[in-house]
């Protein structure tokens, strides 16, 4: 009698079965979006135990998030029972901490060492900067700490970084600062998250007997989301798998989107080079998306060079094409998407199954404002709502204090932001004075600066602050709200504080401040704006009512929704100009992978929008449609024919259809009105702008055409250098 097949193999397609049953030797499972990689991982874990390949305690399974680890443990427990608790299953950091505590003394630590959080790390690096006499204004602590963290991501010790370009920071003192930082951590019996793996790698390299012990323990190693690993994680895994070589990694190079935080796509691209005997298994049957969505995403990602390649397919029907729509500006974009969501609701689609995925955090404001205006329930996932973000709350506190000097809560929030040299003793004196006299903190500050209660430096700082607010208050009636905010943020040093901050989130905070200034343009008075913010902030969090989701593309990885909206597909915004400037082709390809992730979040319907204009600091700036739109196969798109848009935003290069806009479940897509604002935009045919012609652009001034590419022109401007612009936005000169 043939042996009965284990029930957990039922329902697996052939490549999934191969990924489960190919247990020995290195295995690379290339798992495309929506191809069931989690099921494969869980089934493989169960199979190793069922086939008596190993005991659970001899299997190491590594994930990137605690949520993924909990899900895997729970689901494998359904297959093999309580034995699932014995797996070494967890995040890189959790597993590494557990291992390091057994050998902490080998790197000068005790087993009860403390793991520092980000605030503790920053406080420690500031102490060392001050002790070494490094100018923190020129070399911000966050920037220097970030350099150390990147070195740890690459498993570099202090003595190995002297030739690294980042060693030149802080006037060449970075190697010493790194060494001092590590020495101080040892003194404190502490380590940071980067140390967990870095210390283990050092132990494994310096103590072969310890490495051999762990190699003997783990018979099989499984890794999820391998495309997101950094160099240190790769080295740690390679050392552990060196003897048995039973390493199975699951990932998708097309979804590698975390290069900015140290992920190295080369780990997955070169897996077969690192393990020449590796078996590569491709999971290509998609169980999530319709045919049009899958084909559009596949056509897009095929333009990338750094990929191993997969051909995704689905047994699902084609569904409706991906809709692409051009609008005039961001405000209209929010209105258009809100209207589409309401149409989906009327057609029976639940809000919980709808998501708006943005490239940058500042984009959420216009959607939040519009959704609140029409009463559309929503949640912001992966971050606070726009007006709840730290930098926005700080800026609003400044404005509140201009409007009302008695606002002590606002005063307390910004009195030392940015740093003004007001220590705890000075602030305590200020508070005691205010309470003793029954007056506001601002009034108490005005009194104290005329006395000797404070030290001269603190008195001077407080005097400058009081004078600043008096000046801003006097200016308030004569300036538009947005002009006042811009002046206040510049003169207070708040904008400069974030400009000097080199942490990864600083650019996003600056973008949010720009968006806040733009939001003020919509209000006639500062009072009206502050009242609006108060009402918006009052909205209670509702976890029971169905809500549309607003989140960034990075936060959306691993999630899926019936209907997905992808706004802001304009060059410079998406793909991000900063990413391209800093990383060149690698940056562009990572941005394209991010676009691929966005499209493949959609199960049934996807809509991409782009605006002809974005208003920055009160100035309208023309925008080019994202170059990614040209990568999408036309036969899988439903392109809006939008009245009143420049030819550049509705030209013949697009596949224009007369099929209706989508707003219902599959098979029932009612016609929705085209809602683009009709605006007369000056447009001159491309033929009028031959190479060598002198032209004028409202933003960049005069220049000469150096190249013509369809309806786009390369122009050498006299004062702005070479730019690529739409032909519809220049005139002959």
Give a verbal description of the structure.
Residues 643-687 have low confidence and may be disordered. Strand 6, helix 11 (231-240) and strand 7 form a beta-alpha-beta unit. This protein folds into 5 domains: 7-101 and 198-285, Rossmann fold (3-Layer(aba) Sandwich), CATH 3.40.50; 114-188, Orthogonal Bundle (Arc Repressor Mutant, subunit A), CATH 1.10.10.160; 293-377 and 542-649, Rossmann fold, CATH 3.40.50.300; 388-500, PCRA, domain 4; 686-732, SH3 type barrels (Roll). The chain is of the alpha/beta class and 733 residues long. The chain is globular, with a radius of gyration of 29 Å. The protein starts with 13 loop residues before the first helix and ends with a strand. The chain is built from 27 helices and 22 strands. Helix 17 crosses helix 18 (408-414). The strands form 5 sheets. It has a 7-stranded parallel β-sheet with strand order 11-12-10-13-14-9-17. The chain has a 6-stranded parallel β-sheet with strand order 3-2-6-7-1-8. A 5-stranded antiparallel β-sheet has the order 21-20-19-18-22, with no helix packed on it.
Structural features:
733 residues, alpha/beta, globular, Rossmann fold, six-stranded parallel beta sheet, 5 domains, Arc Repressor Mutant, subunit A
């Amino acid at each position: 009698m043939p042996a009965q097949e284990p029930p957990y193999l039922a329902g697996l397609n052939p490549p999934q079965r191969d990924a489960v049953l190919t247990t020995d030797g290195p295995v690379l499972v290339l798992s495309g979006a929506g191809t069931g990689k989690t099921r494969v991982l869980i089934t493989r874990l169960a199979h190793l135990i069922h086939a008596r390949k190993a005991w659970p305690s001899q299997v190491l399974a590594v994930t990137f998030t605690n949520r993924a680890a909990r899900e895997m443990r729970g689901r494998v427990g359904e297959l093999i029972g309580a034995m699932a608790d014995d797996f070494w299953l967890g995040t890189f950091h959790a597993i590494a901490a557990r291992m390091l505590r057994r050998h902490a003394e080998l790197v000068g630590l005790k087993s009860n060492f403390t793991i520092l959080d980000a605030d503790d790390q920053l406080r420690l690096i500031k102490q060392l900067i001050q002790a070494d006499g490094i100018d923190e204004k020129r070399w911000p602590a966050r920037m220097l700490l970030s350099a150390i963290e990147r070195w740890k991501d690459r498993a570099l010790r202090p003595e190995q970084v002297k030739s690294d370009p980042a060693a030149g920071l802080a006037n060449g003192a970075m190697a010493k600062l790194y060494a001092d930082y590590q020495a101080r951590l040892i003194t404190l019996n502490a380590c940071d998250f980067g140390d967990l793996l870095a210390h283990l790698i050092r132990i494994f390299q310096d103590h072969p007997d310890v490495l051999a012990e762990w190699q003997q323990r783990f018979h099989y190693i499984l890794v999820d989301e391998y495309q997101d690993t950094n160099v240190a994680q790769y080295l740690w895994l390679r050392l552990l798998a060196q003897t048995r070589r039973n390493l199975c990694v699951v990932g998708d190079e097309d979804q590698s989107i975390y290069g900015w935080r140290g992920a190295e796509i080369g780990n997955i691209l070169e897996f077969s080079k690192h393990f020449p005997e590796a078996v590569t298994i491709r999971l290509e049957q998609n169980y999530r998306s319709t045919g049009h969505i899958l084909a559009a995403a596949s056509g897009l990602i095929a333009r990338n060079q750094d990929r191993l390649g997969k051909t995704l397919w689905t047994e699902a029907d084609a569904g409706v094409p991906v809709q692409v729509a051009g609008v005039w500006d961001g405000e209209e974009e929010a209105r258009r998407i809100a209207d589409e969501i309401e149409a989906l609701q009327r057609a029976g689609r639940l809000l919980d199954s709808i998501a708006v995925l943005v490239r940058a955090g500042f984009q959420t404001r216009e959607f939040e404002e519009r959704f609140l205006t029409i009463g559309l329930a929503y949640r912001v996932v992966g971050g606070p709502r726009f007006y709840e973000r730290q930098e926005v709350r700080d800026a609003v506190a400044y404005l509140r204090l201009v409007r009302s000097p008695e606002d002590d809560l606002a005063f307390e929030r910004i009195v030392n932001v940015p740093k003004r040299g007001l220590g705890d003793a000075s602030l305590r004196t200020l508070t005691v004075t205010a309470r003793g006299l029954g007056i506001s903190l601002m009034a108490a500050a005005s009194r104290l600066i005329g006395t000797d209660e404070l030290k001269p430096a603190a008195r001077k700082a407080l005097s400058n602050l009081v004078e600043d607010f008096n000046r801003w208050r006097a200016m308030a009636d004569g300036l538009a709200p947005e002009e006042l905010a811009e002046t206040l943020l510049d003169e207070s040093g708040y904008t400069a504080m974030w400009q000097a901050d080199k942490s990864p989130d600083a650019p996003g905070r600056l973008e949010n401040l720009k968006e806040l200034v733009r939001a003020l343009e919509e209000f006639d008075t500062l009072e009206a704006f502050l009242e609006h913010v108060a009402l918006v902030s009052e909205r209670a969090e509702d976890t029971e009512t169905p809500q549309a989701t607003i989140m960034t593309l990075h936060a959306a990885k691993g999630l899926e929704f019936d209907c997905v909206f992808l706004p802001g597909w304009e060059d410079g915004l998406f793909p991000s100009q900063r990413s391209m400037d800093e990383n060149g082709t690698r940056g562009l390809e990572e941005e394209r992978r991010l676009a691929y992730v966005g499209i493949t979040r959609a199960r049934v319907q996807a809509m991409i929008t782009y605006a002809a204009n974005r208003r920055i600091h009160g100035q309208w700036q023309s925008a080019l449609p994202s170059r990614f739109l040209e990568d999408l196969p036309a036969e899988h798109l439903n392109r809006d024919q939008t009245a009143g848009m420049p030819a550049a935003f509705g030209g013949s290069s697009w596949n224009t259809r007369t099929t209706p806009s989508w707003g219902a479940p599959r098979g029932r897509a009612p016609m929705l009105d085209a809602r683009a604002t009709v605006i007369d935009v000056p447009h001159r045919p491309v033929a009028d702008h031959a190479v060598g012609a002198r032209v004028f652009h409202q933003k960049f001034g005069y220049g000469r055409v150096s190249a013509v590419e369809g309806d786009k022109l390369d122009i050498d401007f006299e004062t702005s250098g070479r730019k690529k612009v739409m032909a519809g936005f220049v005139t002959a000169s």
